[in-house]
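Bug #77: duplicate submission created two jobs. Keeping one. Sequence:
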Amino acid sequence: MKLKALFAGVVLALGANAANAAIATGETSSGELFLSVWDKTAQVSYSQDLNIDLFQFLTNTSAGGFNSNASWSVALNPAWAGFYNPANAANTVYNVAAADLDNGKLNAVDQTYGYLSSFNTSNPAPVPANNVAAVSTPAKEIVAKAIVYNANLADAEQYSSGPSYYPNAWGSDFNTKVPVNQSNDAAIDQVLAAVFHGLSSTLGTDPDTGDLFVQDRFDILPGKFQLTATELKYTVAPATVPVPGAVWLLGSALAGFVSIARRGKRA
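Kept job's structure:
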């Protein structure tokens, strides 16, 4: 197992001396967050394992979760030095994502079934679709491309096969329109918000098919991503007025898992 804890305010140096390790795709368990970057001028792309899985990111109640600051070095990766061209910065976009398909099994225990993605609009509009496919379809696309990265057994590699894991059928350069009407990428130094698209608590079982009745949910996280020439940061803005004892629950489906002291407002 790779390092699974992130400490607030500490840069995780995933450099040349870091152990080469595959990205956990999310197909059979909770997948790891990973960074994708696309240089549209040079037609090459870059990926980096962020060494924390989606379940831990969504449920940690202290450092290492969605409600605490973290950063990951890109400058220490030799592949980044070969990939990044400052002259192309304005035409280089990035995205952060993760998926959790758990072999396609849905149950009341696995409340992080779904995927995380960054986005660059303030009010993303989810497409109404209260069914499993609304969540599993984009999650499967993320898993499929993470497997490609997985095969390289490295924390960071260059790719020339296109704009990372969102296929052009959904719109080029990460701008998928499924399931939200917004763009999923930003240029170097620009800020991206983050969303988790998953399933709510089960609503019962179909007596004829045995399938679970579920409803999808759309949770905007309190932190924002920003990729610079040297690091990827996840920053949670402090609350303007401290409210002791207040809690921030990441969607009704996670209420059974977390009770988190409020450190930031929703994006």
